[in-house]
């Protein structure tokens, strides 16, 4: 309707001068019997979108008993008289799905399901698990890895560093001996450090410095440059505001060697950086 | 598989039947109506209204033209399947517990209850099939052409053997008997189930050369129609109300549960209200399908073996269309046999 109303003159045909007009739909038949349909439409932002669809047509021929086909046309009667075709909601509904899988030892299975529950399942799952080192993928605990000090873990998993030695065969303390829940920091081997954000880096707390009173405009690289003079820096963490991406005013610097860290702490404490005086101290474990 | 729940009845189901093509399903319950359903989608085609009491039994003629029902109002009624109109009413002195069309549809048997001084009987009517107009279908015989009186123990269920040669009946005392369908003479009587444990159901295989019985004695038996030899026994842990033989796969399905009067004292889990699948040959239980809230009163299987329906004391009919896993299941020996 609106299209008709907009058109002031019958002569200026929209099809020709409207740049936003959509190209016609194209249908091509492919060699393998499928059809490719290319059509255009406008999306919600008013942009033109090309839609390509490949359509395969399969003809399913079904043979129906003529008597059954004839019956299909019967009209309803009795209490259903006059009702529309199709199942009505008050008499017909669909139940929940039932998994029915016949099996020879059905009885034994049913019993196991009832008894076993989760515990048995977990044990079964872990039965043929092998110990795998996260650093070199060898068959030993991560803590015993010969490359422990030289290589980083293959994939970084949050909080996996500390209890690495213990998990594996006994599944940490997830369900090992007792059924009750044990919080992560109380689990066997978790140590006092617990599992915190930052994960694997926390283990060299001893060589980590906390730098405060850092300028908002500080860059991680600048800080790294500042501290690299004292020794190998393994990590620089500059806390940033999530929204503004500006520095929050503190950073952590981990050294490979503790003596380097001590030296840096001594020298850099009170160092002027970007109009602010840095305060450097050894990072304390947060408990 | 997702069962289709049919809730057209207000009271417990008594019998359900697929027609020979399997596209229609008929159900009767203790309320007074007969329902016809499309088995594929559970749509109700219609209801047959007219009975004055609980309907115990239903059967459809092989050509799906006539429907017979037997009721506690002491009548057998014949219905036009297509229109739902009642064509014929036969009156009896007592309730009718079972009706069944002969394999060729030319005869109908009815089992009447023993009560009020009347002995239980099995009667046989000749059935005429006039095509439309209606007058010809209404024209049916008034009197049965055969009457078998059960003097010892009343018959609870009965059916036709292969070619309509024998009438096989199950009795209240747990015995199975074989009658000549022409003369009505009793040829055999076998105490198949424990004495005094009623036979609740009797269903034939597709070719009617053997049948399965379900009894209150917690077992079902596969028996030969010819000589009533017991071929297989399926033992369950609950009284059985119904049993069927599945075509296509060598299974049998048994249904039962705590007797209706004890149901309120048991939970659904303990009540054993499940359809039990047994392997027909190895007699092992191979699985169960739960879903009903009451004992299963009746089970019937689609003639192609692709679906089964169960009716329970809870008033629901559940139609299950089998999944692939049902058809794929084979015993190790069966698999080896196939390889050869």
Automatic annotation (TrEMBL), chain A:
One of its GO terms (biological process) is formation of cytoplasmic translation initiation complex. This is Eukaryotic translation initiation factor 3 subunit G. Residues 1-34 are annotated as: Disordered. Belongs to the eIF-3 subunit G family. PANTHER family: EUKARYOTIC TRANSLATION INITIATION FACTOR 3 SUBUNIT G. The gene is TIF35. It comes from the Eukaryota. Keywords: Cytoplasm, Initiation factor, Protein biosynthesis, RNA-binding. RNA-binding component of the eukaryotic translation initiation factor 3 (eIF-3) complex, which is involved in protein synthesis of a specialized repertoire of mRNAs and, together with other initiation factors, stimulates binding of mRNA and methionyl-tRNAi to the 40S ribosome. The eIF-3 complex specifically targets and initiates translation of a subset of mRNAs involved in cell proliferation. This subunit can bind 18S rRNA. Component of the eukaryotic translation initiation factor 3 (eIF-3) complex. PROSITE patterns: RRM (PS50102). Its main location: cytoplasm. It comes from Aspergillus sclerotialis. Residues 207-285 form the RRM domain. It is found in: Cytoplasm. CDD domains: eIF3G, RRM_eIF3G_like. Signal peptide: none annotated. GO terms for cellular component: eukaryotic 43S preinitiation complex; eukaryotic 48S preinitiation complex; eukaryotic translation initiation factor 3 complex. InterPro entries: eIF3_g, eIF3g_N, eIF3G_RRM, Nucleotide-bd_a/b_plait_sf, RBD_domain_sf, RRM_dom. One of its GO terms (molecular function) is RNA binding.
From TrEMBL, chain B:
Transmembrane segments: none annotated. GO terms for biological process: formation of cytoplasmic translation initiation complex. Pfam families: EIF3I (PF24805). One of its GO terms (cellular component) is eukaryotic 43S preinitiation complex. Component of the eukaryotic translation initiation factor 3 (eIF-3) complex. Belongs to the WD repeat STRAP family. Belongs to the eIF-3 subunit I family. This is Eukaryotic translation initiation factor 3 subunit I. The keyword Protein biosynthesis applies. It is found in: Cytoplasm. The keyword Oxidoreductase does not apply. GO terms for molecular function: RNA binding; translation initiation factor activity.
């Amino acid at each position: 309707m609106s299209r008709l109303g907009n058109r002031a003159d019958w002569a200026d045909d929209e099809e020709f001068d409207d740049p936003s007009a959509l190209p016609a739909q194209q249908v091509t038949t492919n060699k393998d019997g499928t059809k490719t349909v290319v059509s255009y439409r406008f999306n919600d932002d008013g942009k033109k979108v090309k839609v390509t669809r490949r359509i395969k047509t399969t003809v399913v021929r079904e043979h129906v008993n003529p008597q059954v086909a004839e019956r299909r046309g019967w009209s309803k009667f009795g209490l259903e008289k006059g009702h529309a075709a199709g199942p009505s909601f008050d008499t017909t509904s669909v139940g929940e799905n039932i998994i029915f899988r016949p099996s020879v030892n059905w009885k034994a299975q049913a019993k196991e399901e009832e008894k076993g529950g989760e515990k048995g399942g977990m044990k079964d799952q872990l039965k043929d698990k092998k110990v795998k080192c996260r650093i070199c993928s060898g068959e030993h605990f991560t803590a015993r890895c010969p490359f422990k000090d030289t290589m980083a873990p293959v994939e970084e998993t949050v909080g996996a560093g500390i209890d690495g030695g213990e998990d594996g065969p006994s599944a940490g303390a997830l369900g090992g001996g007792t059924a009750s829940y044990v919080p992560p920091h109380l689990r066997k081997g978790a140590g006092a450090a617990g599992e915190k954000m930052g994960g694997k880096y926390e283990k060299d707390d001893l060589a980590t410095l906390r730098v405060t009173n850092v300028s908002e405009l500080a860059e991680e690289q600048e800080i790294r440059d500042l501290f690299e003079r004292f020794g190998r820096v393994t990590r620089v963490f500059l806390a940033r505001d999530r929204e503004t991406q500006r520095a929050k005013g503190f950073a952590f610097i981990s050294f490979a060697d503790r003596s380097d860290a001590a030296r840096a702490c001594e020298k850099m404490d009170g160092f002027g950086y970007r109009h602010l005086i840095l305060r450097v101290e050894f990072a304390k474990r947060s408990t | 598989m997702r069962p289709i729940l049919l809730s057209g009845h207000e009271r417990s189901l008594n019998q359900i039947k697929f027609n020979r093509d399997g596209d229609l399903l008929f159900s009767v319950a203790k309320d007074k109506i007969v329902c016809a359903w499309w088995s594929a989608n559970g749509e109700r085609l219609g209801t047959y209204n007219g009975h004055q009491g609980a309907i115990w039994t239903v059967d459809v003629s092989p050509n799906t033209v006539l429907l017979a029902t037997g009721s506690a109002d002491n009548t057998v009624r014949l219905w036009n399947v297509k229109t739902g109109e009642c064509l014929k009413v036969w009156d009896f002195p007592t309730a009718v517990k079972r009706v069944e069309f002969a394999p060729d549809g030319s005869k109908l048997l009815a089992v009447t209850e023993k009560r009020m001084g009347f002995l239980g009987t099995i009667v046989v009517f000749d059935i005429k099939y006039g095509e439309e107009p209606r007058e010809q279908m209404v024209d049916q015989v008034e009197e049965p052409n055969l009457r078998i009186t059960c003097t010892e123990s009343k018959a609870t269920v009965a059916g036709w053997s292969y070619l309509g040669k024998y009438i096989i009946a199950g009795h209240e005392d747990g015995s199975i008997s074989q009658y000549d369908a022409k003369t009505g003479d009793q040829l055999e009587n076998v105490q198949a189930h424990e004495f005094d444990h009623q036979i609740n159901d009797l269903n034939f295989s597709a070719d009617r050369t053997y049948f399965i019985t379900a009894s209150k004695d917690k077992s079902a038996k596969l028996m030969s129609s010819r000589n009533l030899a017991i071929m297989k026994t399926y033992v369950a842990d609950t009284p059985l109300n119904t049993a069927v033989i599945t075509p296509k796969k060598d299974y049998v399905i048994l249904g039962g549960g705590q007797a209706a009067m004890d149901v309120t004292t048991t939970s659904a889990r303990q009540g054993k209200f499940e359809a039990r699948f047994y392997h027909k040959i190895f007699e092992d239980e191979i699985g169960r399908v739960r879903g009903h809230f009451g004992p299963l009163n009746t089970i019937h299987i689609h003639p192609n073996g692709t679906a089964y329906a169960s009716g329970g004391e809870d008033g629901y009919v559940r139609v299950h269309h089998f999944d692939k896993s049902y058809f794929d299941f084979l015993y190790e020996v069966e698999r080896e046999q196939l390889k050869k």
